[in-house]
Amino acid sequence: MPRYHRRRKGAGTTPFCPVQTPRETLLAIERAAVRSWPALETADIAGWLWRHASGGSLRANSVSALAFMGAGVDAAVAEAEQRYHAKGAPCRFTITEVSAPADLDQRLAALGYARGADHVTMAKAVDPAAAMPADVEIEAEPTPGWLAVYLAGLSADRQGIAPTILAGLPGPRVFLGCRRAGEVVGSGLTIIDGDLASVQCMATLAQARRQGSARAVLAAIEAQAAAHGCRHLYLQAETANAAAITLYQRFGFHVAGKYHVRAKP
To answer: Which fold has domain 127-230?
Structure first.
């Protein structure tokens, strides 16, 4: 897998200028992202992965369209719609720069699917010498303190289903909590997947923001990735979350790709 280009010191931090990433690299990241947050129910639709879980998680409640091997796109879309209709849920598709077929976004728009908010996929090369911060603890399962921090930042519909999804995450997985004055104030999660390691479940208690806990968790995730021999970190974030994206870019991440969700009204 090619190494990512490093951003020049002093370069702009706008999230709208991706570093050119080889298609196979971005596809590998997007596939790892799908594996890192599995839905409770899935089905294969001509190579697409239909995903469903109650709650508001878009990743767990949309079709991942990273491969298509069917004869007819319209028939596959109709099957996805039927499956979501049977669950009483809206039909959604996650559209990335490596979705298949390549014109899926235009096809869904023509069918009346509404375009959701813009998101970015970000990546950085792992520093093999990354060291664990002293104030970050690691666990194989989420502790009550970790859960309290992570769930506090979620909407009510996501809070209900998140613990179930967390219990079904693939391994190796590492839950990271930044502890200050005896209290967990920041959370993070990484899933080790070959050369890749994810950055997920980043949250900080309101009273602990802008005190370095998020950066400490990122540093700990990188140290864990280095210890497992990973070459790259990746994460996904909503473009509108400018504060988070700025934090990630200052830590060395660059925008590798963009994606959005299409939903049938």
So the answer is: Aminopeptidase (3.40.630)
